[in-house]
């Protein structure tokens, strides 16, 4: 009997927790564990610990599967990371940092950086192939207008996966910044101006009021 100690961490942002059921499967070089329930209640910023019992040593743990399912209402969950300690004391880290929505299974590779040529196991090669296909599907491009740079092939940001969209905090800060800038330009007479600029110095007078402000600093 091999016993693995597992710790699952939830992100600390608003609504990161969930009341949906979460279970885990450990995948090693020699085999995989049975699907083991972690919990059905997760709080933001908190961790859940459990033991996964296996009939034999799984070898080096190369990836994990997180399974999410619900009984009634959908309740998205943001997984920060998972840590697995093998019977011999070896610690494996699996950075996740993504939302799990609906009834889904997400595979997460062990955190050490690997190149394509380093993937000796077929399961890792298949995981890389599926991940590439998913990203190609998510990031499709289209031409907005002739001569313009290409943009994402979506009609609304709401069509994007939640892991691609801004977080609620970043979106709120970005919107607030735009409102502030719009009000500043309105009060400066920029937005309602109906005549041409008299000089570059006049333009600098308007825009120097926001010089040094970086949108990225507000996100």
How much of the sequence lies in strands comes to 25-35%
What does the largest sheet look like?
A: 4 strands, antiparallel
Helical percentage: 10-25%
User: Mean pLDDT score, rounded?
Assistant: 81
Enumerate how many helices there are, as a single number: 3
Stretches with pLDDT under 50, minimum 5 residues: 210-219
Please state the overall shape, judged from the principal axes of the Cα atoms. Answer: elongated
Q: Which fold name fills CATH's third level, the topology of the largest domain?
A: Lipoxygenase-1
- What is the domain tally? 3
Spatial arrangement of strands, main beta sheet: 4-1-6-7
Order of helices and strands: EEEEEEEEHEEHH
User: Any idea of the CATH class of the largest domain?
Assistant: Mainly Beta
CATH superfamily of the largest domain: PLAT/LH2 domain
Q: What Rg do the Cα atoms give?
A: 24 Å
Named CATH architecture of the largest domain: Sandwich
Keywords:
219 residues; alpha+beta; Lipoxygenase-1; 3 domains; 4-stranded antiparallel sheet; 3 helices; elongated
């Amino acid at each position: 009997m091999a016993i693995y100690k597992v710790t699952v961490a939830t992100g600390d942002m608003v609504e990161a927790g969930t009341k949906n059921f979460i279970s885990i499967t450990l995948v090693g070089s020699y085999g995989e564990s049975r699907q083991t329930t972690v919990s059905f209640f997760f709080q933001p910023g908190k961790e859940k610990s459990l033991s996964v019992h296996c009939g034999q040593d799984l070898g080096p743990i190369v990836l994990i599967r997180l399974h999410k399912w619900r009984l009634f209402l959908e309740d998205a969950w943001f997984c920060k990371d998972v840590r697995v300690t093998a019977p011999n004391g070896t610690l494996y880290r699996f950075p996740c940092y993504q939302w799990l929505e609906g009834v889904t299974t997400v595979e997460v590779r062990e955190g050490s950086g690997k190149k394509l040529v380093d993937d000796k196991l077929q399961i890792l090669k298949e995981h890389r192939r599926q991940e590439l296909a998913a990203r190609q599907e998510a990031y499709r491009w289209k031409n907005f207008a002739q001569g313009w740079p290409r943009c994402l092939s979506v009609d609304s940001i709401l069509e994007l996966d939640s892991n691609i969209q801004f977080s609620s905090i970043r979106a709120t800060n970005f919107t607030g910044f735009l409102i502030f800038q719009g009000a500043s330009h309105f009060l400066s007479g920029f937005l309602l101006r109906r005549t041409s600029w008299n000089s570059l110095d006049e333009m600098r007078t308007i825009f120097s009021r926001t010089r040094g402000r970086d949108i990225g600093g507000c996100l």
